[in-house]
Amino acid sequence: MSARRKLPIGIQTFAKIRGEGCYYVDKTPLIARLVEQGSFYFLSRPRRFGKSLLIDTIAEAFAGQRALFEGGEAAVALGVDPAVANRPRLFLAEHWDWGRRHPVIRLSFAGGVHHDPAGLHRAIVDQIDRNAEQLGVELPPTDDVALRFDHLLQRAANGWNAQAVVLVDEYDKPILDNLEAPEVARAMREGLRNLYSVIKGRDADVRFAMLTGVSKFSKVSIFSGLNNLNDITLDDRYGTLCGYTEEDLDTVFAPEFEAAAAEGQRLDRAEVRRWYNGYAWGPTPVYNPFDVLLLLDKRQYRAHWFETGTPTFLVQWLQRKGFFTPRLEQLWASEALLSAFDVDGIEPEAMLWQTGYLTIRRSVLKAARREYELSVPNLEVRAALNEHLLHAWHPNPAQVSVLTSALYDILVSGDAAALKAHFQRLFASIPHDWYRANPIAQYEGYFASVCYSHLASLGVEIIAEDVSNEGQCDLTVKHAGTAWVFEFKVVDGDQGTGEALRQLQTKDYAAKHRGAPGVERVIEVGVEFSRSKRQIVGWDVR
């Protein structure tokens, strides 16, 4: 068995990871390429994907901390403790000009929450002053943030006789923290725009700059004064700059999988992949690092990433939008739409993609227009997000949890009558007064959304808007050898019409599943909901 190392759970400091002999996935070949090929970059990734560690690694390289990148005898010669010097030597150790050091200026909005512009102003001034102190730079007595930052860049470059490096972590967090208060969010946006615009104006004094964050705000808003950034968010060359690849699990973390198997807690790689892989910003899919580290530590399949930040705002926002939840399995968006993120206009596709609840499945170039197919990335996100959505769609979350457990047993048994009774109980448990008081229940797709989220929260295989030669049915669920093919209709009366099942049969949507690998039985279900009764009035099975 290969030697095991410490899992760097929650560690975002490069020096600490290397100093404590932790596992480290070497991203420095990509860092070398960034520095060689450009100077001003922007990168968007969801939370807990390693953005802060990336920024810290770049900072240590420009600060000339060669010892952190060395391993073995070369590391010992540079003063590294022999106890941890057996760590791997990183690519940058021999692919960097270590004789040239740059003044590194770092700003981070990752910690704390600011709900007023004055507080943000004080926080920025404090960070500028701390950078000046660390670099041995004196600043003139002005409270103007832009002017103070401008002086810092100029005097750092002059004092060190080397261009400055500017690294901004979570550049957008003060805005995102206030999206539910648009006026405050706009004020935060203006304050940050004023700050970031200085970087372009000091182009001659800046060797390298990178801004990272969750959201990709449109260039006409926060970046209007910094339009020289190279956005590498969807650059295939940097698709794995953050996150772990399948190869990383096979090599870097191989000792952990070997140890788990030896201790009788084998982690099946196909199951690991199904739960956590699937995020894509290029041709190679990646895992969320936080998920992998927690899985290797606890050896339990859980929604590790999702549980660190329940998306209350996101769920409420989707409610207000009347979002048709089966669209989570497949929707299309243009590149412009994915970038159309601003306080005054946020599209569901952009919000879900940028926060990590949707990922890119493939891209298609149509003349001069590039379009992206989006879907939930993996089982963790599908199950956990839909559980939260369902609890928002239904007034009694505790009752939903009990019903969800029963639903799994019904799918295993393949009992269509029991499934009908189950969904009737689900909708019957919603008081009529709740329907009247909640706008979410008024939109056309409410009933189908509840059914989809209820099923998807189990983590079973789901195909929404399942395409066949004759068109597409609303939903297909595959589990325990059975393929359930659903068509949903909303009717005005209080009696079923049979139209949903007739459409299934006429179009024969289920044909593609008959005899398919792993499918022993196909059940077609036509479901009709009464708009007036708020209940299932038609349930036809074939």
Sheet of most strands: 5 strands, parallel
Q: Distance N terminus to C terminus?
A: 54 Å
Share of helix, binned: 40-55%
Give the mean pLDDT: 90
Uncertain regions: pLDDT < 50 for 5+ in a row?
none
Please report the number of helical segments: 22
Label the overall shape. Answer: globular
Percent of residues in beta strands: 15-25%
User: Order of strands side by side in the largest beta sheet?
Assistant: 2-3-4-1-5
Number of beta strands: 15
CA gyration radius, whole angstroms: 26 Å
Secondary-structure-based class equals alpha/beta
Q: Key features?
A:
single chain; 542 residues; five-stranded mixed β-sheet; 22 helices; 15 strands; 17% strand; globular
